[in-house]
Amino acid sequence: MNARLLPLAALVACSAPDASSLRNQVEVVIDADDASTSQRFVDLIDSASSTLQVALPQNPETGELPGFDPAIGDAIISAANRGVEVEVVSDVDANGDAVIEALQDADIAVTLADSDMAYFEFSTNEDVGWPSEDVMMSHAFVLADTTKFLNATRLGGLDGQRVIFSGANEDLGIDLASEFRQVFGGTDATAMDAYSAPAKNIADNRWRYGTSTDADLEVWFGPQERLIKRLIDSVYGARVSVKILTDEFSNDGLAIALQDKAEDGFDIQVVVGPRYTAEVCGAAKAGEVLFEDTDDVEKLHITDAISIPTIVLVDIEGGKNTTRRAFVLSHDLVNAARFYRGNEVRTDQLIDGNLWVLDDWGTPSPMFDPLIAAWDEYSALGTEIPSDWCTE
């Protein structure tokens, strides 16, 4: 027999690998409350065997301590006790939270990031500053053994829907670890170079990850990868529609982009939550452009929701030569610059956060379904913002 030829039995036994097993197994779900999300965190923490990196975020809605589930702290301490290398990062405004104190008492490596910020602004020739409440660490994720991940849009204290991405992928795990390492090591959103620009680095040149469906996943980190700017670019590139769901909206560039598209006949809808109030009116305040200068944009307001995730759906109806896109952001749609008409404002340049993007290139992917369902549910709760909303 020719030595180069395999026996027939060997040829039969060697079947092609399952292609889906070679791709990123990402799951997208909408979780109903904080207890359920916390349990997901605990389950992944319990699965760690060698390394564990946990990001616990600031929750800006109430101004109170986040109120992380004690079960999360217990799971982290248990992981350290069984020999797992554990690191935790949270926002400085979570200092005093019972879980953070328990981790510190157990000698877990904890970094509290994104404290208040002050520096001399050469463009205005004056000292400027932001309180720690406006300098946010909005990451909420667990990375176990450098491959298994879980990312949530909300954690701690507040019930209400939140978007969760979970799965296992070595490349994405490495990138999440790189972002974690910067914030944990002190290069957070407050770190600046000599020219007052963000000192954080792009985690990796990889940014798109395959999934088991026809959808691809993108993951971006802020402030270094300009998350709000990416949303604005996508709005201008829309072919059919843009649907936005967010609690707070204070970005003029995005508002102008929405109006430009609406004027051209595109279906543009925005649903804002309780944090978008009539206080944006007058005195050139951030957020007023959405109300006053976007007459062709359909705007709805929700007042009774507890927690609203930030979801942007572009061309979700699909169609020939149209790519469906879904964006999930870890924070609200705030300003993209540190100053708004000379005043310091909450800005994504001072927020450590993440943006997860689904791109549907072919057959409609079921990964979009939970995000579309969330949009439908929240938009049904909204009422049109009245024309006299800003009347004093």
What does this entry look like structurally?
- By secondary structure, the protein is of the alpha+beta class.
- It has a single domain (23-384), classed as Endonuclease, Chain A (2-Layer Sandwich).
- The radius of gyration is 22 Å and the shape is globular.
- Strands 7, 11, 12, 13, 14, 15, 16, 17, 20 and 21 form a ten-stranded mixed beta sheet that branches. Strands 1-10-9-8-2-3-4 form a seven-stranded mixed beta sheet, with helices on both faces.
- α8 links the parallel β14 (267-272) and β15.
- The protein has nine helices and 21 strands.
List keywords for this structure.
392 residues; alpha+beta; Endonuclease, Chain A; 10-stranded mixed sheet; 7-stranded mixed sheet; 27% strand; globular; disordered N terminus
- Strand % is 25-35%
How far apart are the termini?
94 Å
Indicate how many domains the architecture comprises. Answer: 1
CATH topology call: Endonuclease, Chain A
Regions with little confidence, pLDDT below 50 for 5+ residues: 1-23
Count of distinct strands: 21
Q: Write down the Rg.
A: 22 Å
Main β sheet profile: 10 strands, mixed
What share of the residues lie within helices? 10-25%
In CATH terms, the superfamily is Endonuclease Chain A
Name the CATH architecture. 2-Layer Sandwich
Mean pLDDT: 85
Order of helices and strands: HEHEHEHEEEEEEEHEEHEHEHEEEEEEHE
Query: What is the molecular shape?
Result: globular
CATH class: Alpha Beta
Number of helices: 9
